[in-house]
């Protein structure tokens, strides 16, 4: 932060004094003259310092008395706006998202000081030591593992372990049904290719993970965005309306738990209705369940797949977010498309490397996995709290933020009109990476949102970055108002 | 082999005596009466024994004198037949290969005593100890490798190492141009998806690797099979003719070196003509160069890509066959489709796991890699020789076999009319897995061929299996003649 202009450095200095209680609520801020004297700065710098803290809500100016410490505004920790249901659904469109976001993704691949764009936890949250020693012992157990032909059809131990763990989500399946993939993204590709073709319409949540929109685009499919609530997930009513309006929907893709980016959780009743609706309409339902193990509490939420009695639900998941972001172990339960997905996986990428499969299997079957999950969930809960607090403290008035019941992200609605693209650019200048809302939809409905990662421990550096980000948003929000005015 | 009928066990006993010189050329075989007495077997068993060895060509019956050891027939070690060029090319067809071979692939996933269906060497041919210790040291060097987010865009060290090694194939490229994939099969998928769509016609070699036909089928593309010579590879003349006949060919896929299954090597002049033809016609040329490092001699053959001046050649390869069948490290140089392939790879499977990328990079950059290749090539040369010898010795008259200048497979033409499917079934009964010719084409042109792996050291067990396989083919070939007569 040494590159900050002098007035901002001084503003930070006094902000620290306020936050640690050296300057209390109602205290008078040193006068401008005193500030000039003490810090050897110009009048303009001293004034900028005070105005900065005023803008951020830490000081209030009283006529002829100077600046006083005030109770800062706090951002309302309430969900981002509920979508309007019942209005006409946007027409399905060929996804043009890649062009829209490829530059953002490319820029995001730079090394930055603070990466808030991830959808995983930081490395410290995952059992790297245990996975490392399992890797070494697996190689000892199977000395030729790297050089012998990979066991066809996926590693048996892993398939059995995943089938066993799926019980926790209410899914009753067998090892034979499990198809191992390169992460959840390959699972989604296979699922979509199994049930639909180029030109077909796929119903998705809105906002939805840009990765899904990219997959649709790469497959030449059209996305139909269905309003989705930050608290209860996709609107089953809106989906039903869409199915009445469009007769060419070939699949529905849903993240029922800790939806990305909203963090919403579908109530069980909604899940049942959704499964029944899709079955009745004969439209395959693709469930992306990558996050459910990160939900607060000890009970893993029940998968849509539990209510599936006809094989109409294709279940996709991975260990990427919950066990090891460096490992590409995903899987799929393909219901009545089992044979076709098996064929596609074989033609697509053959089988996954066996080393990480066996390591994952061994860990999943151990009690260390349960301990890991408990620790992971409680660390994430603390970190989410801290990040929400930072947003409440530093982000400008008019910001809204959803507190999801688990997971690694917060979905932040900035004051109306604030451009997430402009915030992205300005933050990147300061070596802070955020995930702008415009990536999560083909509409411009989420252009003033950000997805903020909370997978990292809340350190002083992170606090500095959040404060700086708050200022950037403040700046963008007020310049927007300026233009509007 | 304890399960063999008694007469076959005894036939093996006498065959050994013949092969080690105890019974010499022209020697009289013990009489049937003596065989009955010595082995305590029935007349019928003794007769069956002699007839078996007669059928296999080791004995000849002389009227009223009994059986005598004869010079066995030897299979001609000449290439399988050259294709007929100039005739009308088969119409392009939607590949129906998966249905045709899925059952064969599924059956081939059983544990067998002798697997001759692989297209890789046995594990002993690859540096498993070195790769293992590199894995362990890599984890020591990057303790959080399994749990931190994967470096975007593929591991830099590996991309640099591959660019450097590509120089040996005459390719001048940079690390930036290298896109890492899950094996060569993902590279082929991405290349095809970059340049063509469902319904498009793709020109392929005939015979060609069934994996490629499956990829085309899974993408809804049509295969146009171009006659391909067992010695010089795809016929550029036939391809030119096809391009005149069909105006909708969207890509050409070629394995210029050690073609799978033929083992053919394109002469440099053909390669240049092919590159120029495709460029002139504006048809993308996809090169699968998975095997070239297995070619005899110290010079790696020059890739098609070397003659590519317009970015019209997409180069695909992997370390699967040459370094580690258990690792899924492939790569692609996508020419003028670089950006599109990058996007497709990201949407397809994100990035490969980093552990095997770093291990591969480290090994490729060491001199151990050159030593490994030299050893691998010379082991394969010995093993190919032994297998060809076994085929010459045990397979029935009328068999032809190509001796490729490198690689892990022999392409065997059985006597006309012999069904490779029947041989596959009968061999599997004996726990021997072969790769039937019918998998390598949509036509029935190769139904009497087998691809035989020669990646394993030639042991007594393997010799037993080859002898048994020879008998099976003999049986199928003569039963076919029987039906024909």
UniProtKB/TrEMBL annotation, chains A, B:
Keyword hit for Transcription regulation: yes
GO molecular function: DNA binding; DNA-binding transcription factor activity; pyridoxal phosphate binding
Pfam families according to UniProt: Aminotran_1_2, GntR
Signal peptide coordinates: none
Gene3D superfamilies reported for this sequence: Aspartate Aminotransferase, domain 1, Type I PLP-dependent aspartate aminotransferase-like (Major domain), Winged helix-like DNA-binding domain superfamily/Winged helix DNA-binding domain
Entry keyword annotation includes Lipid metabolism: no
Top-level taxon in the UniProt lineage: Bacteria
SUPFAM superfamilies attached to this UniProt entry: PLP-dependent transferases, Winged helix' DNA-binding domain
Keywords: DNA-binding, Pyridoxal phosphate, Transcription, Transcription regulation
SMART domains linked to this entry: HTH_GNTR (SM00345)
Annotated ranges, domain HTH gntR-type: 4-72
Record-stated family: In the C-terminal section; belongs to the class-I pyridoxal-phosphate-dependent aminotransferase family.
Name assigned to this protein: DNA-binding transcriptional MocR family regulator
């Amino acid at each position: 932060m040494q590159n900050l202009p002098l007035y901002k450095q001084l503003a930070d200095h006094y902000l620290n004094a306020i936050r640690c209680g050296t300057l209390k609520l109602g205290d008078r801020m040193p006068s401008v003259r005193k500030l000039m004297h003490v810090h050897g700065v110009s009048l303009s710098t001293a004034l900028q310092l005070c105005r900065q803290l005023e803008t951020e809500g830490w000081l209030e100016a009283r006529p002829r008395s100077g600046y006083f410490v005030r109770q800062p505004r706090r951002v309302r920790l309430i969900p981002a706006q509920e979508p309007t249901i019942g209005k006409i659904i946007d027409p399905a469109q060929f996804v043009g998202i890649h062009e829209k976001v490829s530059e953002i993704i490319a820029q995001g691949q730079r090394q930055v000081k603070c990466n808030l764009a991830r959808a995983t936890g930081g490395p410290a949250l995952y059992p790297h030591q245990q996975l490392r020693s399992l890797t070494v012992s697996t190689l000892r157990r199977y000395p030729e593992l790297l050089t012998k032909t990979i066991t066809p059809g996926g590693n048996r131990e892993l398939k059995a372990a995943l089938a066993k763990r799926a019980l926790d989500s209410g899914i009753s399946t067998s090892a034979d049904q499990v198809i191992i993939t390169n992460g959840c993204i390959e699972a989604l590709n296979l699922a979509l290719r199994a049930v639909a073709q180029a030109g077909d319409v796929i119903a998705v949540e809105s906002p939805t993970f840009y990765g899904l929109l990219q997959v649709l685009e790469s497959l030449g499919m059209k996305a139909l965005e269905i309003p989705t609530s930050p608290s209860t997930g996709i609107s089953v009513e809106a989906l039903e309306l869409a199915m009445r309006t469009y007769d060419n929907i070939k699949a529905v893709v849903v993240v029922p738990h800790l939806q990305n980016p909203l963090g919403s959780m579908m109530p069980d009743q909604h899940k049942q209705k959704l499964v029944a609706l899709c079955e009745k309409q004969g439209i395959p339902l693709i469930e992306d369940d990558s996050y459910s193990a990160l939900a607060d509490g000890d009970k893993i939420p029940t998968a849509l797949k539990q209510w599936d009695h006809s094989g109409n639900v294709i279940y996709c998941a991975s260990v990427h977010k919950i066990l090891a972001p460096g490992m590409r172990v995903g899987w799929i339960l393909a219901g009545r498309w089992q044979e076709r997905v098996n064929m596609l996986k074989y033609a697509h990428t053959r089988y996954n490397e066996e080393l990480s499969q066996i390591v994952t299997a061994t860990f999943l079957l151990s009690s260390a996995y349960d301990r890991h999950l408990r620790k992971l969930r409680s660390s994430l809960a603390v970190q989410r709290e801290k990040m929400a607090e930072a947003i409440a403290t530093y982000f400008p008035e008019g910001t809204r933020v959803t507190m999801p019941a688990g997971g690694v992200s917060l979905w932040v609605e900035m004051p109306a009109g604030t451009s997430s693209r402009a915030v992205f650019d300005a933050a990147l200048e300061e070596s802070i990476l955020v995930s702008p809302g415009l990536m999560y939809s083909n509409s411009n409905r989420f252009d003033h949102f950000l997805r903020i990662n909370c997978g990292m421990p809340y350190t002083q550096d992170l606090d500095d970055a959040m404060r700086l980000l708050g200022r950037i948003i403040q700046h963008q929000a007020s310049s927007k108002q300026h233009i509007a005015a």
